[in-house]
Specification:
The protein is mainly alpha-helical and 198 residues long. The protein has two domains: 90 residues; 107 residues. The chain is built from six helices and two strands. Strand 1 and strand 2 form a beta hairpin. Helix 1 runs parallel beside helix 3, helix 2 runs antiparallel to helix 3 and helix 4 packs parallel to helix 6. The relative contact order is 0.12.
């Protein structure tokens, strides 16, 4: 149980804490944004930092373990999907966005299982996978402090700071979906040989 794995476990522990925060009554607001939104954002940002930190620690200290390889991607997926489901429940996000995210993760996980059965072949991560992660993190962070639903700006009902935040949220969520689709397609394209019977 090295430091890198402890950071991964800590990230997983933060997920149920995010869920509990949504059930509690948090009075007040800051800059017109409810306290609960700020709390969720702080937790999510801390969890996102540990995502980068545990990988760096594992590589720099030569602490890469089988346990870490198994748990780290699970922790990432659970964090992002949970945050998006919370946003759907808050009325900020349409359900089709996390549906696409989950669908992509099922495809990639399936390919990884087949790769293990075929001698542990590794499908290298592409630039699309990295862009997917970055756009997802930014989109979720901005969405938590957006008082309006995804795409509200299109109706022309907003102005000033709310309009700016909603525009950023909408654009980043669209980019997040695009990079998710392309990264999923990249896995299918690069791993299509795995689906052929020997």
């Amino acid at each position: 149980m090295n430091l890198a794995n402890k950071l991964t476990i800590f990230r997983i522990i933060l997920v149920p804490i995010m869920i509990v925060v949504t059930f509690l009554e948090w009075p007040g607001e800051f800059l017109g944004i409810p306290t609960v939104a700020w709390l969720l954002n702080v937790i999510f940002i801390i969890a996102s930092i540990t995502d980068k930190l545990d990988g760096y620690v594992a590589r720099s200290r030569n602490q890469i373990t089988t346990f870490g390889k198994f748990l780290d991607p699970i922790a990432d997926k659970v964090l992002v999907i949970t945050a998006m489901i919370i946003l759907v429940e808050m009325g900020r996000l349409p359900s089709w966005i996390p549906t696409i995210i989950v669908f992509r993760e099922f495809i990639v996980s399936g390919y990884r299982l087949i790769a293990v059965e075929n001698g542990g072949k590794v499908i290298a991560a592409s630039i699309w996978g990295k862009l997917k992660t970055v756009t997802q993190m930014i989109a979720i962070i901005v969405a938590f402090i957006d008082n309006y639903a995804f795409g509200t700006i299109v109706r022309g009902e907003l102005s000033g700071f709310p309009m700016l935040i909603n525009a950023i949220t909408t654009i980043m969520m669209v980019l997040c979906v695009i990079t998710t689709i392309f990264s999923g397609w990249d896995y299918i394209k690069n791993g299509k040989e795995l689906l052929k019977d020997k």
